[in-house]
Structures are given as C-alpha cells and as structure tokens.
Batch of 3 targets.
Target 1
Amino acid sequence: MFLRYDDTFEGFLTAAAACLRSDGAASVLRPGAQIPLLPVQVVETEEGFADRLGSYLSTRLGPEVPGTVYQAWLSLVPGIEDAIVAFLRLGLAKRRDPSGFLQEPSVGAVVKASRKVTAEAHFFLGVVRFRLRGSVYLSEIEPAVDVLPLIGDHFAQRFHDQSFAIHDLRRGRAIVHPAEGRWEIVDVAPEEAGNDRDGETVGDGTDDCASTVWNPPARPDPYEAMWKRYFQAMAIEERFNPTCQRSFLPKKYWRHLVEEPGSSDRRVPG
Amino acid sequence: MDVIEKLAVLGDAARFDVACTSSGSERSASSGAGVGSTVAGGICHTWTDDGRCISLLKVLLTNHCDYDCAYCRNRSSNDVPRAAFRPEELAMLTIEFYRRNYIEGLFLSSGVVRDADHTMGLMIETLRLLREVHLFRGYVHVKVIPGASPEAVERIGRLADRVSVNVELPSTRSLLSLAPQKKPADIEAPMAYIADRRSANREELVRYRGAPTFAPAGQSTQLIVGATPDRDVQILRLSKNLYSRFDMKRVFFSAYIPTNAHPLLPALTSAPPLLREHRLYQADWLMRFYRFDVEEIVDSGSPDLDLDLDPKSAWAMRHLDRFPVDVNRADYETLLRVPGIGVLSAQRVVAARRLGRLRTEDLRPLGIVMKRARFFLTAAGRYAAERIPQAAELRVLLADKCGQKGYAPFQLRIEDLPVVAEGA
Ligand code: SF4
C-alpha cells in the first residue's frame, strides 16, 4: 500500500505513524513522486501531531531522534520517507536511538541525509552575507536544501538587535526578524521577489522589517569594499588553489557573496 | 592613510598566522544587551583563493615593531609598508564586519611599539571599545605580547575569549640567538599567570555563575617548525609540557617560510616543511585524543617523525605483534590504536556492536578507513584483508597520499595556514 501526504513535515509524520502501526508493507510518498499503479491512500494531516510524536520519540528513543528525522526529511533524498519509517521501526524495536546502528542500510541513509542537511545549514551560518539597506540587513541565499528552519535561531540570537531578512530565492521564502522581535518564515511571492530591484516593498508595509526592504542603496556600503579588499589581502598568491577553494566553497554559491572569490589576483598592491 | 589601506597592509601582515579556530567557548546573546554569540563548533565565513578558511578578522593592530626577530617580516630592520589602526577604527571595523556576517570575531595581534605594556594598552583599548561601547559579544582571540605585565594580562583576559603567548622557537638557545629582545621568562610569566587565573576563574564560576570570565576559551600557543635545528622529539616533549603545565587548549605548529636572510636560518630558497608540520599535528592529535604518550611516538633513538607514514601507522608497524584485533571484542582504547579507525568510528563500533556481531562488510559504513584498517582487524572470525602482507609491503600500503604529494592540506581545514608568525 502507498500513503501520500501533503508535503508538510506534519503530514509526513502522520503517514509515517500510520505505517508504523501497520505491519510494514506500506510505503510513504511525497506529492511530487511518481504515482505507482497500486492503490494510493491520501493521508489526512493531523494538526499538532508532529509535536506529540516528537515528544514520544524523544522520551522513548532519545532526545536526538526527532531532530535527526526532521533533518533527514528536509534532505528531499528520494525514498528517504521509507528509510525514516524503517529507522524508527528499528529504534522502537530496540528501545533506543537507532542512529548508532550504521550497518543497517536504512539507518545509514537517514543519518547520511540528516548530516547532509545539517552540513548545508552550518555552511550557511557562515556564508549568509547581509547587505545593509536603510536600517535593515538583507541577505539572499540559494541553498541546495531548505535550511531556513535550521538557521533562524542562530541569526536571531546573534543579531537580536538587528532587523534582518534572509531570503531563500529558490524556495520563495524568507526568514524575517524585526529588531528585538521573534523570527518567522514568510512566503515571498515570486511577483514581489521579482520586483526586488524596483524598490517595491515586501509584506504588508506595517512590518518594521519590510518597509525599506529590497530598496537599492543610495550609495555603496564602504564596508563591502573593505571586506573585498581584506579578502584579497588574505590570499597568498604563490599558493592560489582554486580547486581546494571550490571544494569548500562551491562556485554555485559565489553569486551572493560580497567578497568575489577568485578576485585576489586583481588586487592592488598594498 | 585610509582605513581600507590600513586593512590591506595589516591584514596582509597577519595572514601568515595560524590559530584561526574560533571555537572553544559558547556564549549566547539571547538575553541582555549587545550583539553577538560564540559557537562551539567554529564557523568558516569564506575561503581565500588559496583555499584557507576565514573565520576571524585577523589583523595586526600595527606592524610597526621595535624588535628585530630574525625570522619575522615585520622586524624593525626590514623595509616593508607600515600602518597602524587607531583602537576606535579597528573596533568599528570589527563590529561592522560582524553585523554583516563576514566574520565570527577578531583575532588581534601586534608588533611591539615602545614596549610590551604600551602595546598591550592599545590592544586593551581596542577590546574595551568593542565590548563596552559597541557591546560586542562575539569571539575575540588576542596574542599577548611577551613581557606584558600581570596587570595588562589581567585586563586582556577579562576582555578576550582566548589569549595566546607564542613560544615560537622550540628551545631557549634558538630564542636567544634569533629573538634577542625576547627572554624565555617574558613568555613563561604571562602563560603561568593565565593558567593560574583560568583555574581560579573556573572555581569562581562554579560558586557564582555570573562571575566575570577570564579567557573562557583558554590559552594556546604556537611553535615555529623548521627555522631551527630542533628535532620533533624536542618539539613534542615541549608541547606536552605546555599542555600540562599551562593547561593549553592548543599548541599550534607553523612551518617556517623563509623571509629574511640570516646565517642561522634556512636559505631563502628552501621550501617550508609543510609535511613535517602536518605530521606534528597528527602526533599532537594522537596525544590529545588517542591517549598516546610522546615516547610512544618518537624518542631519543628515533627523534623525528616518519614523513612517509602517519604516526599511528608508524606506531602500528612497530607493534605488529598486537594485531590483528577482533573488532567485536576489542575495547575502545584498543580500537583507537588501529590505523584507519578514528575517535568517531571507534565510538560507532562500540554503538553498532549492540545490535549484533559486526561482519567485515559492516565496517565501512561505520566510517572506518578500510584501506588501512583491514590489515589490523578481524570481524566475525574473518581477517578483513585478503591476506596478511609482509612488513615492507605493508609499509607501502599504509603510506598516505600526503607523503607522495609532499604537502598535506589536512590542517588547512582545521586551523588555517601553517606559516610563520608575525606579530609578537
Ligand atoms: S615577531 Fe613580533 S616582536 Fe618579533 S619582530 Fe616580528 S612583530 Fe616584532
């Protein structure tokens, strides 16, 4: 049997729980997945179920388990849903966090997927670049997976006195954090995002964070030039190593950085 | 001179410094005023065009220097562009970079202007502005100038997360001949002060959580490798000594890159001993995380590390009688000594065994590097390699790529580039 859910984590957990209650022949499908020729049952998402299941798993299997499952689910790896169900089934049978049983293929898949997501999130803790627009700090990112839910707390803690937004261009969503306020993730409609450069406002206009958003700067930010210059000064020309640099900082992420990787050979002699 | 020009000169002058790890203390900023937090794991913000991680704004306050250390580019007798930040300039630069998420914090060092305490005073003022005026709560690492007074060290320790006093030259003889203005006591006294204050501070913090901290991320130091004839055994014994006497968090090694011609230093054309530095880091790792003692790694009989083999494989080659071990029975300590098994994979073996007996094919998913480990393991009654190789053959099989390439990017990932120290 196949269970289809509504693309929310909550929906997935509802479907996963249904699988766990059954004898194991079920398989969980994401909405975009190929429709099999076998009967598909659409699972109705239970509100608040994620929290209840989360605390159950956390007390039964260990505090790390809900996080591991959530991160693995975020990875979008094909078939990860079934791997998560098998992972939880093993954990419930052994009454402990199954993450240590890496010799089991499902555990390996879940742990690997969750590590991929946390690595991407950790990477973005570093490479988010805020550009100052008025009194708001804005960042645009294009991560491979949805990292916003995982990085919001870090930035809100670190910059709690700043109004900032981190806009995931690929997914049309943004973290919005008003100074001294709470962060949330909002949808940024493509039309609004498309208007970025025209100085349109985002949100309803009352939000502190949205009022000046996306306005082009009146004059260039001097600190951006300083950062670029510092970045160039730090490279040791005899050792230029683009391969090594790209293994840590893949080229696809350069677009939104301020420092222009690869620019050190153009530097003005100090 | 503009701030941007100063930044270019003083960033350039600081770039050869190691010890860029920004980890070791954790401070959240969720409560109270101010900006910033520190993260235990360390965060890279970008990678330079030579592939090194930039985490901290690493600069010298000034590269003017009254001292004339033979190995240093900023020594007084060299003709190099000089610049100096005013404390408020650097404090401002740090906070503005931080707010844009360019950096984790500041790594501040300096040439010696007038004397140690005068220079320390300028560094203290920079940090004071940063902490008290800009309410900065991010990470700060400061290099203490040798010869700094206890009062200056006290003030800097209250403002910084990590402090370091660099040993630089691994023996007193080398120090006296190459850094004539620095006395061994100038280095040891601040180190001892920091160690004492740290242990007192730990007690204060147990009694009262809100007590002011003193260098909560501890102290570290740096040794230059290859500038002097000192052997690996001396370097490793010294670093062991430093860890235990001064409660060091890290001892960094830095392969010497010739910058000045000097009769006692390697020729300007000689290559920096990067592979040797890499092996020293591996040995240091074995001592700190794998429960090895220096004398198991090198001794007076064989005073230098084997450049072709990582030190754990080299140790295993000398103790073949202890292998192979049964991966299902061996205790954690024994697993740690198997080439190809790291701390994490040893822990995973212990966890995975709970599910049942491990077979040889189960080992790779646990993160064990089978290329090396297979010669040292049995699992479920089977030897993990096809056959037992002869010792000479094994030596070749264990040699890592670093040895062949002559250069290892290993610690570039962990703590930035291994070159000579500038600044104090
Ligand atoms: S090592 Fe430090 S004290 Fe010695 S010359 Fe260089 S900057 Fe000056």
Target 2
Amino acid sequence: MVKAHSIDDAVTVKELRKSYNTFSALDGISFSIRKGEVFGLLGPNGAGKTTTIKILSGISMPASGTAKILGYDVVNNPVMVKQNIGVVPETSNLYPELTCTDNLIFAGRLYGISTEKAKTGAKELLHIFGLEEKRNVLFGRLSSGMKRRLTVAASLIHDPPVLFLDEPTTGLDVMSARALREVIQSLKDRGITILLTSHYIEEADRLCDRIAIIVKGKIITIDTPEALKKSVRTEKAVDVKISPYTPFIEKEFSKMSTAVKYEKREEMFRFFIEDLDTFMSEFSAFIKGQSLSIESINTVSPSLEDAFVEITGLRREIMIQEKGGGK
Amino acid sequence: MKGALRSAFFIALKDMKAYYFKPPNISWGMLFPLVFILAFYLRSPIDFAHLIPGLLSLSLLFSTTSMEAIVITFERMTGALERLMLYPVSVTTILLGKISGGACFGITVTVVFLLCLIIMFPLHLKNPLLFLASVVISSFTFSTLGAFVSVSVKQVFEAQTLANLFRFPMIFLSGVFIPVNSLPSIIKPIAYIMPLTYSIDSIKVSFGYEPQIMHPLLSLLVLTVFAFIFLELSVKILKSRMS
Ligand SMILES: Nc1ncnc2c1ncn2[C@@H]1O[C@H](COP(=O)(O)OP(=O)(O)OP(=O)(O)O)[C@@H](O)[C@H]1O
Ligand SMILES: [Mg+2]
C-alpha cells in the first residue's frame, strides 16, 4: 500500500463547506482522525453525514475548505485518496447482475489488484462475512442484510488503511449487526483507521474511540463516549422492579411523603431522585405498606443517548427514525 | 496509462457480461437493424445489394447506441455509475470502458449481419482490412455519441428520444439511400456534420465503390476526431453532474 507522510492523523478536515443550490448542507466542519482510531459521526437525518463521506471519498466537491486523507488532498489528488480508502456507501450498490464472487473480483481489479489476488481475497472475505454459500448467487438475489455485508466486504478487497462506513449496520438483523460490529472491531485491531456514521447511539458508543455530534451541517461537539456521558448533568436515577408486577401501583406513588418523578419502563419504574438513602428508606416503607416486595433495584448512570439529547437539545426519538430496514 | 486501459477493459467486460450478451438484450440490439434490412429488401429485392454497405453502417449505429444509452442511463439511476467513481480511476477511463462495451456489441451484431448477408447475396468485399478498420472506428465513434446522449439526460426514455433526434436525420441524409453528392446543396452541409456520412463512405469504398466525399483514410480520421469531441464532452458533462 502506498504510504504518505509520516503524520499521526489519517484524516484531517478543515472548514469544509458544501451547498446544494442555496441550501447549506455542510457549514464549515473541522475534525481530524488519528491513525488507528475509530471515529463516529453521529447525527439525525439530513445532518450532513453522507455529504461529508462523499467529499472525503473524492466523489463530491466541497465548496470550500480542505480535506486530506493520509496527506493526500481529496480535491487535488483524488486517485491517491481513492487508492487508500475503502468506502461503504449508504446504499448497498454493487452490481445486481453479477454474483457475489464476481462483484468482489471486479472491485479488486478496479483497485488495480491482479485477478489472482482478487480471487483469493474474494474467497477470504466471503468467509469472513459468512457468505461462502452465496458465492455464486447474483447480488440482486441476496437479502438486504446480505447485500450490506457484501458491500462492506467489497470495500476491503484492496486492504485499505482507511475505511469509511456510511451507516454500516442499517438494515441488518440483530445477529448480523453484532457480527458486523465484531468485524469492525477486528479491523480496528489490525490498525485500520475507521470513520463511520450512525443513527444508533449505542453502536457509536460501543465502537468509537471518539464521536462527533453533527446537526444541520455543524459539528456541535467532539469527544470520547465516556467524556460525553460525563458531561451530562448528573441526575440520579434508579430502576426498580416490583414483585409481583402491578401496573396500577403508579396511582399509589403520590401517597409517598415526598413527591417522586418517575418514568414507566418495561415491567419496571425509573425514579429520578435527589438522594439515594432518603429514597430507599421511604420507598421500602411504601412497598411494605402495599404488601409488595422489591425484586431488583439498580442505580442508572447516564447513557450516551442522554448525553446526545442534552447536547443537541433534540428529542430522543429523532435518532430512532429510520429509512428502510429495521434495527 | 496501462492501469487505466486495464480498468476500462474490465468495465467493458463487466458490461458485456451483465447486459449486452444476455439473450434478450442481444435480440433487442439486433431488432432495429433487422427491421431496416428486411424493409428495404422487401421494397426492392433487385437493387438491394447496393444498399448493403449503407445498411451495415446503419446497423452499426443503431446496435451500438440503443443498448448503450439504456445501460448508461440505467446505471446513473441505480447509482452504479457513482459507485464506479469510488475506484481510483478517472471519469475518462470509466466512460472509455462504457464506450468500449457498446462498441464491441455493435461490432459483433454487424459482423453477424455481414456473415448472413454474404451467404444470401453476391457481395464482394474488396478491401477487408479497410472494412474492418471502418467498422471498428465507426462503432467507437457511434458509441461516444451514445455516451454523450446518455450523460446529457436523466431518464432512459429521454435518452432514446435524444438519440433518435441524432439518428433519424442521419438515416436519410448520410448516403444510405441517396448518395451525398446528389443531395440539394442546402442540405449537403448537414450531411457533412454527421459521423454516419463518413462511416458509410469508407465502408462503401471497402466494397469497391468510389469515395463520394474524401479518401477513406481521411474519413476514418474525421470519425476519430468526432469520437474525441464526443468523449471530451461526455467527460465534462458527467463530471459536472457528479459534483
Ligand atoms: N444531491 C443533493 N441535492 C440537494 N440536496 C441534497 C443533496 N444531497 C444531500 N442534500 C441535502 O443535504 C442535507 C444533508 O444530507 P446528507 O445526506 O448528508 O444527510 P445525512 O446526515 O447523511 O442524513 P441521513 O441520516 O438521512 O443519511 C440534507 O438536507 C439533504 O436534503
Ligand atoms: Mg446519510
């Protein structure tokens, strides 16, 4: 693989702007990704994630600003950029008329790999992505989850040092999504620099070393998932499971001496509290009075989702909105 | 350079495998030329042989452009063309691959027709080498025209309409039926800006006719210039559409 300068950043983006007609899709974003890092772009629909990936892949021109991959400028040296990156676009767009194997070999050839090498690589990738049985099936005949997996496989055929994944797990079932996350983790372990976009806060939390939260073409904050969580105003919460589960118990909560804030969750209640000791003594007295018992009680620490909601001021649901495919 | 040609070759190969040489598509590509040939044969079976060189060129034009226009507009719609941009190849290389695919298809269809016609009619191919060169160069030129048309439009049907806008006048003015020299002098200049005119002229010479316009090698040169112009225009348009 071609090496650029010995810099520590694999990707540097400075003041990138992009407009479609008068609409500003990217409003001066800047960030850099260290070599070997997994960097997440997290944001709601239309935030500008795909636009960013397209510019960094050299297939869309920025209006202003610069972006460099391993030292190569995306505008001035797109061929070297493309040689050094693997890209998984938002849609799984391999050739429907070609088989899985032929698609991978085609991709390899266009990256300048010898046909022999492409064939071996294709075999390996089909194995890694659990698609060996489908090797001679047309891409168009695969399920959408399998298409997604093959699209990821195709981005790796030339062993790129940098990988861009635009919503890699969208449309995958739980098991395939988990398997793909494991693959991404193993790529990270091999030292590949990864930029991924996601709607799934949990996924970003699990995979990313650092996360940039992007809304309406602007990056609001960049930090590690841990730091983002810490930045959330610490509101203490406890999850309590009451046995036997009685949904009607809600009505009785008002009888407790201090007023309680709570949310109903699946078969349990989440209480937002001031002080754990006070809450505990009061709540156990209340439960005894109702002739019930506490099955479990857990204190809750803020999630990345809480952080996201607080930082962006957006509703929780905004990130769950989906285009096609399920979780 | 070598890498670019290799990539263009694989793009063409993939197109031929995926589209052109699939049975329903082959017949679609042959349909137009077949209709022409039959229509003119039935109209005047006696002097039909004189029309053959022109009809071969026409067949080349139609078989090359009709499928190709569909392929390129289709791939632009599905995003397959955008995906090609992810690879470390230039827009010129991508289009060169697409164009070669269409050209190879046109050449194949035309050669099949030629073989059938040779069996059925007393044809004398005087200069097979010139014939081959004319067929190859013409099909590449027509293919660049097809590419130009298909990157300029959005929908498949628009591509067909725009292609016909170019193709139908060529049928009547390029010397297939009426020699260019017997055209009224107001229309003649139109004939001179049509690539088909030069293609027909050089193919006719390869069958032993006298050149109507210029030396066949010059005709081939003009065709090559046309090809470069159409390719350059297509690259420019596609680039601006993509960003
Ligand atoms: N080709 C285009 N023409 C016009 N507007 C566009 C184009 N592509 C994107 N946009 C607009 O730019 C904005 C950012 O789009 P982008 O696709 O980058 O969002 P995203 O963060 O990837 O969203 P999603 O989560 O839905 O994929 C959107 O408002 C979108 O409508
Ligand atoms: Mg997107």
Target 3
Amino acid sequence: MLVNVPGPWSPLLGRLALSEIPYTNPILAPLFVVIVLAGIALVAAITYYGKWGYLWKEWFTTVDHKKLGVMYIILGLVMLFRGFIDGLMMRTQQMLAVGPGDNGMKAMGAIHGYLTPFHFGQIYSAHGLIMILLAATPLLVGIMNIIVPLQIGARDMAYPYLNALGLWITAAAVFLIMISLFVGDFSHNGWFGYAPIFELAYSPGVGVDYWIWTLELVALGTTLGSINFLATVVKMRAPGMTWSRLPIFTWSAVSANIIALTSFPCLQVALALVGADRYLGTHFFTAGFGGNLMLYTNLFWLWGHPEVYFVILPAFGMISEIIPAFSEKPIFGYTAMVLATFAIAGVSWIVWLHHFFTMGMGPYVSTEFSIATMLVGIPTGVKVFNWAATMYKGRLTFSAAMLWAIGALFLLLIGGLTGMMLSIPAVNYMVHNSVFVVAHFHMMLLCIVYAVFGAVIFWFPKVFGFKLNEAWGKIMFWLFSAGTFLVFFPMFMLGFMGETRRLDWPFDPHWAVWFDVQEIGIVVYVLSVLAFLWMIYVSIRDRAHHRVGADAWGTSRSLEWLTDSPVPFYNYAMVPHINARDEAAWRREHGFSQSRPDHFAAIHMPNNTGVAVYIGALTFVIGFGLTWRIWWLTVAALILTVLIMIYRSGKGDPGYVISAEEMEKLDRESRQNMSDGQQHLPKGGGYTGGTVTAYSAAASDQRPQGTPPGNSRPLS
Amino acid sequence: MSHGHSNPIEHPEVQMASRGSYLTGFIIASLLMLAATILVSGQVLAPFPLLLTIMGCAGLAAIAQIYFLLHIDISEHNIWNTVALVMFIPLFVITIGLTWWMFSQLYLRTMPMIPGMPGMH
Ligand code: HEM
Ligand SMILES: [Cu+2]
C-alpha cells in the first residue's frame, strides 16, 4: 500500500493476529468470558423457545417505523449502559489515583489507580463517542421514528426501506466499537480526535482506525435518516395537517434533521481526510508537508457544534409535548416556539469556533463567535419562558414523565448559563479544557437524557398499550437526579480548582474529597439503573392492570393519541382529517373522541425485507476490514454491497394491498383488544378529572378512557 | 405510501436525469480534480497562485456536480430543488467564508507568510 504500517501485515489477515486479542488483560479477559457466556445463553434460549423465525420476520426484516424505532431505542439504551460503565471506570480511576505518590495497583500494571494511561485514554475516548453518537443519537432518532409519522397522520416513513437501512448501519457502528474492546484496541485521543496525534506516525495501532470507521458509519446512518424524516414531513402529512398545525415535536424533528443533513457530511469529509492521511499517506493534517493541524479542528467542529443542537432540539420537542399534556393547557406561544426552534438551528451554524477560542485567531474573530454564541441564549430563553407560561395556572400533574421534563429544564438552565460563561473568550481562556467544560456539556447532554426518559414513559403506552410503573419511574428519577447532582456539581468545583480534563492521574491532593463525592454519586447512579430495570420488570409483569385506551393519559393533545394503543401496524385505519392544532384535544373538547371511521378504503403497505440487514452486516465487514487493512475482505464486501443495492433497486418493492373489508376487520379487532384491556378501569378520570381542561373552549361529557397517572398501582 | 400515486418515472427530477448528464458531470469533475492534482504535485505555479487556481477548480467542480449530478437549478418545475439551492448559498458563505476569515486572522498571528500572497511580507 501507499503507507508502511508498523508491525506485521499479511495479505490474508491484514494486521490481525492472535496477539491482538487482549486475553492477558485482567479486566477485559473476564469480561469477554462473561459476554461470550451470556451470548451463548441468549442464543440457546432463543433457539429453545423457537423464536428465531419470529425475530427475523417481525423485527430484523421489518420496515415498520415503530418497530425500527423500538430497536433504535433498545440499541441506544444498551449503549447508554456501556457508556455509563466507562464513566464508572473513569470516576473510580480518578478517585483511586488522586494525590502524589505511588498508589497504583501493581497487579494491573498501573502506577496510579488501577488503569494504565493507555487504557484510561481508550475509555474516555470511547465514552464520549458512544454517549453522543451511539446512545443519545439513536435514542432520539428512535423516538422521532416512532412519533413523527404518527403525529402527522402518515402510515409510515416516506422511505421505509431506507429507514431500516439507517438502523442497521447504525447497528454496524455499534458492533464495530464493541468489538474494539476485544480485538485490538480503541483510539486514545478523545472523542473528537486531535491532529496530528491521530496520524499514523503517532498512533500506529488500529485504535484510530476503529474510531474513524465507527464515526463514518454512524454518520452515514444518521444522514440517511435525516433525508427520510424531511421527506416524510414534507410529503406525507395527512389532509388538514398544515404547517401551522404541525405538532411542536415534529417541528423540532424537522429543524434537527435539517441540521443533520447539512452538517454530517462535514464530519464524513473531515474523517475521510484523516483516513486519507492514515491510509494513503497524504498530508492534510500533518505538521509538515503543507498540512494544517487546525484545519481538522475547524472541520470537526463545523459539524460538532450543529451536532449538539441536532441532539438537543428533539429533546426540546419532547419537553414541549410532555409539559402541555400534564398541565392540561395548550403550549404557550406556539408560533414563538417554532420560530425559536429555527432560530436556534440557524445560529448553530455560526458558532462552532467557540470550541477553540484558545487557538489564537485574535480578537475580531473571537468577538464575532462569542456574540453569535450568546445569541443562542435568546431563543432558548424564549422556549424556557414558554414552558413556564404553559405550566402557569395549569392543572399540573406530577407524573413521572412530567418530573423528567421539569428536571430537564433545571439542567438546561445550569448548562445554558455555564455555556454563556464559556462563550466569553476571557473566561474561556481560563477554563477551556478543564473539567468545567466537561460539567457544562454533561448538564446539556443530561438534559437530553432526562427528556428521553420522560418521552419513553410518556409514549410507552402508545406503542405497547400499557403504562410503565409510575412509582418506580419516580424513584428512578430521584435517584438519577441525586446521582447527577453528586457527580457534576463537584465537577464544576474541580474545574475552578484547575483540574484539566482527561487526567488518568489527578495529582493534586486537594481534589481528593470531590472525587470521593463523585464516586458516591456514581453509586447512586448505579441504584437508578437498577430502579430502571426493576421498573421495566414490574411494568411488564403487571401490564394487564395498566392497559390504556387510545388517549393514554386522558389529557393528551396531539394526533398520535387518536389511534389505538398499541398502535396497529397500519397506524390509522383511515387517514385522519386534521381540524386543529391539537387534534386529540380538539376532538375531545368537541365530543368527537369516540367517533370511528364510517367507511374503510384499501391501503397499500410496504413489504418486509432482509436486504437492509445484509447491507448493515456488510458495512460492518467493510469497517472491520478497513480497520485491520484486510483489503480483499473490504473490497469483496464493498462489491457485494453494491450488487445487493443494484439488485434491490431493480426489483423495487411493489408492497401489498389490504382490502377495505380486511381493514374493517383489523380495525374492529384492534378496538376490541383495546377495550378488553379496559374492563377493569372506571370510566372517566381520577382526581384530575382527566378530561375537562381548564382552558377548553367547550367541555364535553365524553369521558376518555385514560387513567390519570396518579392511579397507577403502588410499589411492588 | 398512499396508493395509486403517479408513476415515479414521471416525476420531473427523474425525467431530468439522463445518462448523458451523469457522465458529463462525472467527467468534468474528474478532469478538474486531475488538473488540480497535476498542478499541485508538479508544483507548476508559485504557492499563492496555485492556491487560487485549485480553489477555482474546486468551485467549478462544485457547480458541475450541483448541476449535472444533483440536477439543482433555478427553473420553476422543481421548487424543492430551488429551496435546496437557496439553503446552500448561505451555508456555503458561512462555512467557507468564516473559515477563510478565521484562518487569515490566525495565519497573521502564527504562520510564516505564504510566498506570493499579496499584502504580506
Ligand atoms: C446556551 C447554549 C450553549 C452555549 C452558550 C454553549 C457554549 C459552549 C462553549 C463556549 C463551549 C466550549 C468550551 C471550551 O471548550 O472551552 C462548549 C462546549 C461544549 N458544549 Fe456547549 N453551549 C451551549 C449549549 C450546548 C448544548 C445544547 C450542548 C449539547 C447538547 C452542548 C454541548 C457541548 C459540548 C459537547 C461541548 C464540549 C465538547 C468537548 O470539548 O468535548 N452545549 N459549549
Ligand atoms: Cu458548541
């Protein structure tokens, strides 16, 4: 090849060799055994119960946006857990290693703490990449996937097959980063990478290559998804769903996906150039030969800052759906909300430089970007006031989802204010690259995680037909919040005390006490993870008691609450006609919530396909082959991918048609199923009344069948 | 997925696509890239004129790709393409323009000057 890789290379296996598997590592080797055993147990269980066919037919080959969304969310939750374990390891290392002197565990080969610097570097790099791109992004994409078509009254996404492709390419990225645990090692230069340390001369291993191809894959999957979302909202809205009636969450999805579509290609180009340096021997980002180190940082953050808004805007959208439902009021200032969303999206394009003020481009440039960054605060402030005004004089129900949404607001406040501090260059010079910055963006990203948990609890009954256990949802909320407080407030303190980020050996003994507090926080986080798992278990066990009707909360507002719960695969038996901005609330208040379609028409649905799974698997092989420089494998997988794509394009998907009679039957069964689950419930709400909103134009005596959240069963 | 939608082959953007235009776009873009590569690797020009020349090549390649490969133009039949074009211009100015400004300020402070650049010594 054009570059000489250090170390052995063979045509058959590339750089791969048995010695690349870290079977002597005292952490990874046992973990590997555990994972292999768990994997065998899982495969055995699926085989024993004969579920392979079911999984393949119903899930792996599906093009149904709801199932794809559920799989996105499961993927995101698994990676959230993996990222959390990374966090736990980093916190423990710093707690053990703090202070001068020789406190390392010799058995592990560490001079300080229990991790070697090389291992610690891989952990923080993987943690950042995983949390932002493989946990937060799939969680948000998954929720958008489920909710956006429902909110606009569509039967599916505009391109159902493309949707599946996006999921499986993202899954390929997940597998690639997971396999880097056990085969070779991962990058150690941070989640965003530094030039020139990622050049082959300074990072001769495969770690950086894993990093490049994981990012490339997830960027590809997300770009495809964003095209799909935009086409869906532009083209697939139900009759009457004008732009001015679009639910806020869908608006936020539109803005976020415009950002994704325009910014992810930047990341792909930046990484392709890094790849060219490492594989072809070019000099884009080297220190000599005409290369420019800072160009990389510039290109990366040109994507990086829009990306942070790509993840926060859908979270804002979720908060905007949860708060009105549990305040029993429409959102305050709809138009202002939409404009603010787009203002944030627009400004997000002109601020990326605040990530490297300290590079030294002088006062004029810094001033421009400082002011632009502060401008973001205006639309964000508009949103916060709108949420507050929505709650003002509302009839508040502090359900678990509402708690998460309100919690998100507090984190947004702290994160936003510290962001404002960071956007002042003079302040930034003091705290840049300290853990103060780390605390800032964790406030922001946790704001997203809070919104996601709120959204999961809020929309879970829509997708599965029963509610999650409220009490355990609240317990988890309080544990999680305590953990957040204990881990991240000390981090702000440590930032002011001068702790730089990514220290495998925090040398200053004055920091010790804050590390201990953080470690306690991590323990509390662990408890919240257990509470989450228990909540899932209890909810599934008692699902018969928590079945819901179409309008699960009794106070819901937007269109998705009109169709049955769980949502049938065709979403709406007849495409609904939209009359108002909050369609479900409008129908409830005008006494139409029980009305059903009076006739049915044949509908056209897409077929399942395995092609997306195959292409996903092949992209994984391409990433793996490139990482290890196994050229024949890469080329073979690439050719196969192209052939499969050509084959699929030639064949197309005629889809299938469900006749009107069949639709009527399906609709009747779905209804029946839903009301069977309702037998045990009293009609009409509980203590909130559940229906008559304080602001309804015309209260009706139609009682929806929702249960107010307070009625759920006690702890078990 | 609504049923009985008009034939996708009849959509204007599909109608616009032809083998000829794809090939033309591909050939023009490749030739421009080749020209830039030869200029750079042969060091045919002084550094600053070289920089301007390859930037010119890049600009032409971008226009060729937008027109021949993406079929984005300002004609009326395809409103969304025009919207995409209108989106593209501010983004282009922002990304390239602000980056340029930033680097020029940075170089003023940190780099030896590129020979041949006007206004610098
Ligand atoms: C009010 C809005 C915000 C302002 C004014 C702001 C400001 C800043 C500034 C100035 C920095 C650079 C700090 C430094 O490195 O010295 C920064 C870093 C960061 N911010 Fe924000 N920010 C805001 C919102 C957000 C949001 C919404 C997110 C994500 C959801 C976010 C995520 C991040 C991340 C990930 C970093 C650092 C990345 C890294 O260095 O690894 N910020 N922010
Ligand atoms: Cu930023």
